[in-house]
Amino acid sequence: MLRVEDLVVEFPAGKGRRVHAVSGVSFDVARGETLGIVGESGCGKSTTARALMQLPAPLSGSIRLDGVEMTSLRGEKLRETRRRLQMIFQDPISSLNPRRKVRDIVAEGPRVWGEGADRVDEMLEAVGLDPVTAAGRRPHEFSGGQCQRICIARALVLRPEVVICDEPVSALDVSVQAQILGLLEDLKERYRLTLVFIAHDLAVVKNISDRVLVMYLGKICELAPGETLVNRPAHPYTRALLASIPGGRLALPPADQLIKGEPPSPVWPPSGCRFRTRCPKARARCAEEEPVVRPVADGQWVACHFPEIDGV
Amino acid sequence: MILRKVIRLLVVLGVVTFLSYVMLNLLPGDPTVQILGMSATEEAREQLRQEMGLNSPLFVRYADWLGGVVTGDLGTSYITDIPVLEALVDRLPVTLELLVVAQVISLALAVPLAVAAARRAGGAIDQALTTLSFGMLSTPVFVLGVVLILVFAVHLRMLPATGWTPISVDPYWNFLSVLLPSITLAVGQLAVYSRLLRTDLIATLQEDYITLARARGLSPRRILWRHALRPSAISLITAIGLNLGGLIGGAVIIETLFGLPGIGRLIVDSIFARDYLTVQGGVVLISVGYVLVNFAVDLVYAAVDPRIRRA
Asked: Would residue B181 count as lying in a domain?
């Protein structure tokens, strides 16, 4: 239902330089699917998510929601379409206007769209808050997990079709993380949502996602069903991510042998394969020629000249 | 919380009045010269000094004065023979009206200008406002005041150049007479206020909840006015508080230029006349005003951002 093609987002970095935040990313999301996006900080996950909403709009590329090209929408049309996608951010506290009461926060969306506030209480209950006690209070009176529940209620009260969760649990305690993840899965079933789930932690993403997209420095490394990705990672970067999860199922070498150094600057991304400066398998070809995303197995797509096709 | 504020007010008053007392006494000059004139004999002046208690030590005189203040007696001017409190009460409405009208004018323009500029940071409106603000800030009030008098009073003959009509005498003329001085005062403040609010608005507009408001399809106008404006107002409110407090006595130049009988003029005239008691009374008034205004500002903070109430 959501198809992204050749998405490019760049930001000016002063003196005519540009940050290449997202460079030519393509993927699609089927209705009812959960697509996970992982990668380290600065790899363009959040930028991709915001570009889907046109906040800000991408430099180039195409984003189609049910065949409607979003990048060419303006004004009223764009506002109406944006509504069908909603977002949840990492920091639930800064996501809420500190001045307003919970009821106003959740009710404002429907009110702007000329709908009554009758679903507000239902929504608060659905996310596990008591409407009677919670609605009259302000965000700073709640814990992080409760604030995230308010954010979820505020997004879902607009009956979105796609919910983009940008690191929705990264700022929360581990015990609360599991609750929020469980809540998201329940709500997905109940309201037949399509989720785009972003996290830097592969362990969180692989459990909740049908398919997982691995990004590095603004490019796609690998796209595969969650199980495949965990059991047969093909891209060296995916392997490095997996090796960094404690208690992984695969017998991978230690993470520090699979990845070295710090990520390069997105202002001057490396030529050819962007991962080559940190890849233990990099050869001359990797610097000269950029690997294209190609299928290596059923549903598994990889952008690497020398993928690990036979597992470990 | 209230008690702490009151204690703070008393400490501020004590320090400020003592320092001003000391400084006034360090000034060369003698009130007896002002009262008796240059030709008075030394004996006559000495006798007057005795009567006025000017020969007692500084601390004794200050303690005397402070005792009066505590009982609500600010003394009577040696020079004009008018009770200080009466002189202040007489002058205060002029200064207050000037301040309030100036604040209303500057805020009424600063808020919409800042919103328009923040909406597109770095855009045409923003750059024009930035240039204009620095122009307004770097124009001294006495230059601006003279230019305004020249244009509106001398050439266009729309407004009176100087002078003051009390509101009880004629509200319409009162308004006309306060207009030019208020505009002169408002221009500099307008520049400061719009700069502060613009910067805070731009920061607020980067917040996640603003992005999410856009995602929900709220109109840019609603986001700016309903979601961004109030959380961005903290610096602005601080500046208004400092301005209001400071200008109670600080509108001296304006009051002199436009011939307004306000507090600032009273204090300056009294300093030149070595009218210590009136100056001291003015200092008390300014300090009380300053502390009260900033107390009010603290309360407004909590209304603007509920998180501050807990801090």
From this structure: yes
Structural contact between residues A52 and A2, judged by C-beta atoms closer than 8 angstroms: yes
3-state secondary structure A230-295: HHCCCCHHHHHHHHCCCCCCCCCCCHHHHCCCCCCCCCCCCCCCCCHHHCCCCCHHHHHCCCCCEE
- Please give the domain boundaries of chain A with CATH numbers for all domains: 2-84+160-302 (3.40.50.300)
| CA dist., res. A96 & res. B211, Å (int) | 11
> Chain B closest CA to A70's CA: distance in Å?
13
Per the structure block, which two tokens stand in for A305?
Answer: 């000249």
The verdict on a CB contact (< 8 Å) between A109 and B305 is no
**pLDDT digit string (tens) for B52-65?**
777 778 888 888 88
DSSP assignments along B217-280, one per residue: T--HHHIIIIIITGGG-HHHHHHHHHHHHHHHHHTHHHHHHTT---HHHHHHHHHHTT-HHHHH
Q: How many domains does chain B have?
A: 2
- Separate counts of helices (H) and strands (E) for chain A: 12, 12
Relative orientation angle of helices A144-156 and A174-191, to the nearest 10 degrees: 10
CATH of the domain at B225: 1.10.3720.10
What is the greatest pairwise CA distance in chain B?
86
Instruction: Supply the pLDDT for residue A38.
Output: 92
Q: Is the ipTM of this complex over 0.95?
A: no
B219, A112: Cβ pair inside 8 Å? yes
Min Cα–Cα distance to chain B from A203, Å: 26
Same domain, B147 and B57: no
Look up the domain containing B60 and give its range: 2-70
Element (H, E) at A184: helix A174-191
Percent pLDDT > 90 in chain B is 15
Q: Give the closest-approach CA distance of B208 to chain A in angstroms.
A: 5
Interface test with B, best of A53, A55, A83, A97 (most B CBs within 10 A): A97
Q: Which of A38-42, B74-78, B202-206 has the highest mean pLDDT?
A: B202-206
